[in-house]
Amino acid sequence: MVSRRAVLAAPAALAAQASRMEVCLHQTTVAGSDYVRSLDGCSRAGIRFIELIPAMVDAFLARESVAAARRALSDFGVRAVAGGGGRGVIEPNPERAKALDALKARAALYAELGVDRMVCPCLATERYPVQEFARTADRLHEVGEAVKPYRVVAMIEFTRASTLIGTLPTALDVIRRTAHPNVRAMFDFYHFWAGLSKFEDIELLRPGELHHVHFQDTPKIPRETYDNTTREVPGDGNAPLASILLALAAKGYRGPLSVELFWPRLQKGDPVAVASEIKTKSDAVLRGANLL
Question: Looking at the domain assignment, is residue 114 inside a domain?
């Protein structure tokens, strides 16, 4: 079992092996800018990866073509590694059929942009009977079938306030019962550490099972005041980021660490300055964990 103490004492060989974790800019963090400026911010800050959001992509495509969007990625030397837009497809709701159609359309667009995975958060707020948890796998199978023709993976995001999939163990359980190649697990540092999950839950991950990571810190404020937006720049908060990173590395995660933040000073800030701050502070955390 991967205990906190064991992770902190992980050998240097493991750290070197996990060095391919790399910072990624989530467009939500610079939501006040636009598609091109977000790519420019990444490029100038030395960030190679970006996670797309529908609002920014759609605003660009209202004026330009998909080919132009792809060309911009190439021109700035930035790779789009994931995208959002999979809401309302996990929990039972009267608009779910429309949400599945929207999911298909978004997956088709992302495929054209070279994106092979999209985030599907579970934002359920209703109270469900235990039987409903058993039926969730059937809905996830439909999600997998919806994105499969586009060779896109639907990544199920547990969220701290969700009443259906709010923890890592629940997410892993339902994804495994779904057993669909286009439905995979992802991990969000904030939802994990600020929610009901426990550090030891990381041990439940199977090697290579994790498909994507959102990387944030928890702010130095009373936990009772946390909400969906109170996410901190990595290194500026009080979450045990190095310990969690090493635990994920021990489970074989190699990939982008997508920094998704909601502070107005960041979203309204200059994308170059914001991306540079995120790159500097995130790299410092990785370096402190001997992962860089």
Answer: yes
Query: CATH code at 49?
Result: 3.20.20.150
CB 202 within 8 A of CB 247: yes
Full DSSP string of 135-167: HHHHHHHHHHHHHGGGT-EEEEE--TT-SSS-S
- Fill in the DSSP letter of residue 220: S
Pairing verdict, β 256-259 and 183-188: unpaired
| pLDDT tens per residue, range 189-225 | 999 999 999 999 999 999 999 999 999 999 999 999 9
User: H or E stretch including 214?
Assistant: strand 210-214
pLDDT (tens digit per residue) in 69-104: 999 999 999 999 999 999 999 999 999 999 999 999
| Domain-located, residue 232 | yes
Domain that holds residue 267: 45-286
Chain centroid to CA 132: 25
CB 231 within 8 Å of CB 190: yes
Residue 203: alpha-carbon gap to chain centroid: 19
Determine, yes or no, domain membership for 113. yes
**CA angle at 170 for the pair 100 and 104, rounded to the nearest 5°:** 15
Using CA atoms, how far residue 264 sits from 85, 101, 232, in Å, is: 22, 32, 12
Residue 186 CA to residue 214 CA, distance in Å, equals 8
Number of domains in the chain: 1
Q: Do the beta carbons of residue 276 and residue 44 sit within 8 Å?
A: yes
- The answer to whether residue 250 is domain-embedded is yes
Which H or E run contains 130?
A: helix 130-147
Give dist(CA 106, CA 112) in Å, integer: 10
Return phi, psi of residue 20, to 5°.
-85, 0
